[in-house]
Amino acid sequence: MNEPRVLILGIGNYLMGDEGLGVHLINSLSSASLPDGVDLLDGGTAGFQLMEYLERYPKVIMIDATLDAHPVGTIRLIKPKYAADFPKAMSTHEIGLKDLVEGLALLGRMPELYLYVMSVADIANLHVGLSPEVERALPVLRDQVMLKARELLNPAH
Amino acid sequence: MAQRIVVDPITRIEGHLRIEAEIKDGKITEAYSSGTMVRLIEEILKGRDPRDAWAFVGRVCGVCTTVHSMASIRSVEDALGIVIPPNAEMVRNIMFCAQNIHDHVVHFYHLHALDWVDVVSALKADPKKTSEIAQSISNWPKSSPGYFSDLQKRLTKFVESGQLGIFANGYWGHPAYKLPPEINLIGVAHYLEALEWQKEIVKVHAIFGGKNPHPNFLVGGMACSISLDDSSGINAERLAYVQQLLKQAKDFVEQVYIPDLLAVAPYYLDWGAIGGGLGNYLAYGDLPTTAYTDISSYKFPAGAILNKDLSKVHEVNLRDESEIQEFVKHSWYDYAGGDDTGLHPWKGETKLNYTGPKPPFDHLNVEEKYSYLKTPRWKGNAMEVGPLARVLVGYASGKSEYKEVVDSVLKKLNVPAAALFSTLGRTAARGIESILVAQWALEFYDQLIANIKNGDTRMANTEKFKPESWPAAAQGVGHTEAPRGALAHWIVIKDQKIANYQLVVPSTWNASPRDVNGQSSAYEAALKDTPVADINQPVEILRTVHSFDPCLACAVHLYDEEGKHVSKVKVL
CATH homologous superfamily for B48-533? Predict the structure, then answer.
């Protein structure tokens, strides 16, 4: 058995439309065949409860929605070292997660963290599905995430 | 001259809450509490399968997912008359306890401590003296001078690297901080230790709920199978692990949390006379030792206390449509019957109508509607819910385990019982409750094991799981006690689908706006007369509001576009 090496962690609230795109992405990957050493986690709306996972995996790819000035569906990769590096307007759980990241930094236990954020327009719309724009952009994000996961598994290539 | 200050957002972790306070001669004369987000989970649930509701409501909040799921499955079980097996009852209790302790410890160290502990001052502490104090208050092993000196070096390095972390936002150096540097250093040390400990206790949820975050629940019982020698389900080995985690939790509460609470409190005894507020307390009760349907078996008894009168505990009936009602006089909703109507949750309506000022704005118009929270009332009374309410209802009910712990804490702090009706009392009650819950968790564990050893492995009652077996119409209510207070979900089922669903969450009780009669709710009442030394650094407001463990994520929904918040007085 290989040690767990890479965690793909989707966070967000699927009760709030596009805000839950991270969770939708994890759900869409759950039927895909993943390379050995890659695990998936639906982090949902959790904050502190994710600590165990952030400590267990040396490399974590995190996926979340963000409200910013970019066009809807814009994908950005951020490599946060500290809580302050997270986008300001992330999602419901933002502050819990940021506090957790700060705590991990203080404890010297931050994993190598890659944060993919996709810009969304409005999370005030209350529904469970995704908007057409985010729906369209999601496969692109999915490919990028998988590419990154493979790259992290085999750094030499 | 009176001045109006605004604190927004006020929470460090979940939710969006804004406080506007009028201050005259260094004291708050009026306070207004506003939930600035809306969630409308009720509308999402309409038309769905009642058996799925728990999964949706579990996502309402990042902190109390399990209690929402629990209230939801109980509401459906209540509507359909389903009685769950004893094992499921105990597993739910154990999960309840794990969450309660987790939440209280995280609240104390990560949300509330920094209102009392000056982390910058910790850098000046003498590690040797710190160690002496730590060893005098507890047997907790991590207390050597070397331990504190290493930590101090790490903190200093962290601050020097320019990454402030917990040091970034605070009113450090404010005269309201009274602790000596050594106790501040202990506080910071345990802030970090609590962070490490909390990741252990949540594993209980993963074991019984299949995964964490967002464990699985089931209408009729629990979605896990238990057998002592089963290799795939929950077997003797995994149960032993649960017991170990519960024991660790008890150790952490007794050797870290409570000693810290008792070491910090003596410096802030003046807060035993500040922030009392309503004096009305409400608990729905939970933690059945036999069955949820047997209210008399609850470890947390149900009841209401009015006007701080501990000689009488009033009965509370969640089904009586004249008892609990929600009002929208000052909330951004419309009721078909008009603004003066109060609706019992089974008849509840959720029609949003924002009439507040267009952001960005300076002040809310508190004469009109000013919050996304509805205003719940019990028999017309504004009520406070939470650990203090639970502890007082237990104490006033004459339960000996409550009396023992409450009296011992009062004695150690050398304060009268009246000091409980305060900001300090609220914070102390959370600790008192943790002592009890940590003990109870192990009792429930023993009860579960005894039951399994007696050959009962039933975990779910599936008799009425199929919708065909349901009546055409049914309604139910499921209650629990969330870490931050009484929580109930009311459901109306028609033709096998959800026709109405209403959550009345703890923060709705505590943080709601005024009612039709102009009565304040708990936060607003508690803030009245609170001293504020420096309006630019209103740490006193934070102390009182944080003492309630505010969590508005479930009361209202997120809307946090950058720059939309007015932060006249910027807070944490």
Answer: Cytochrome-c3 Hydrogenase, chain B (1.10.645.10)
